[in-house]
Design a protein that fits this description.
This protein is α+β, with helices and mostly antiparallel strands. The chain folds into 2 domains: 16-56; 61-123, SH3 type barrels (Roll), CATH 2.30.30. It contains 3 helices and 5 strands; from the N terminus they run H-H-E-E-E-E-E-H. The chain has a 5-stranded antiparallel sheet, covered by helices on one side.
């Protein structure tokens, strides 16, 4: 007999013990189930949550928002199209990006307007 198979046969449960195999199957699959649950709550669920937040941010893009692209380019949105946005990077430079290339909104146009109004109210 092969010396590699012998330890496997010695550790194999007896075929006559039918009730013992059910308990061993349960004790084998329960840890796998727990590992799957841990992966779900620690990896998959937060990733789905972040993806939904990103989709919400991309859907709310509007003219005047200050943004940062995934390449690190900072600019202000000049126009918003269905799948792209035109970003003003410099006084004479406008670049068209895909919406998915936007990493974050630094300052919303609405927040910028309210901050400007607050400054003008304070000076009066």
């Amino acid at each position: 007999m092969n010396t590699f198979v012998l330890p496997l046969l010695m550790g194999a449960p007896d075929q006559a013990a039918g009730a013992g195999t059910t308990a061993s199957l349960i004790s084998t699959f329960v840890p796998f189930g727990l590992v799957i649950l841990i992966f779900y709550f620690l990896i998959i669920r937060p990733q789905n949550k972040k993806q939904k937040e990103t989709e919400k941010m991309l859907a709310a893009l509007k003219k005047g928002d200050k943004i940062v692209t995934i390449g690190g380019i900072h600019g202000v949105i000049q126009s918003v199209k269905e799948g792209t946005v035109v970003v003003k990077v410099d006084d004479s430079t406008k670049i068209e990006f895909s919406r998915s290339a936007i990493a974050s909104v630094v300052e919303s146009a609405k927040a910028e307007k309210s901050a400007t109004e607050a400054v003008t109210d304070e000076t009066k």
